[in-house]
Amino acid sequence: MKLTDTDFELFAVPATFAQDRTALDARWKELQREAHPDRFAAQGAAAQRVAMQWSVRINEAYQRLKDPIKRATYLCELNGAPINAESNTAMPSDFLMHQIAWREELEEADDDTRIEKLRGEVEAGRARALSSLDWLIDEKGDYPAAAKQIRALMFIERFAEDIEAKSDQLGQ
Fold this sequence. Notes:
This protein is 74% helix and 0% strand. By secondary structure, the chain is mainly alpha-helical. The chain starts with 6 loop residues before the first helix and ends with a helix.
């Protein structure tokens, strides 16, 4: 293992979107046990600092690999298709029209029933987007298209947060 290994190499898993969460969790625990600074106490402060660097590296990799959006983003970046979410917000017009309709529904929502209906639609949209990422990355290897899908999924995630905020507001 090297600090410069990809997250996939570090965790000894294939560089794919589809991942077994149980295997990732088990490997994370194994790597953390191996790199825990307390194991290096007898070797001095320098060895403990190196172990701490490894521990941080392992945690960062685990956070990326366990989260589908972060994992897809990482795969796209590794394959030359950066997301550039801050500077590239271009979306297909049908997606934008759907977002506008959702926003209008959310503004008009005044009870739990309407919020739940909208929450269900957003969850279905999220599931479709994740399935699309699986296909685009693992089946087609189309990283530029996957990058666009990730940006759309980021919109969906932010909107899901807005739904929760509105739900909390209605609950007060």
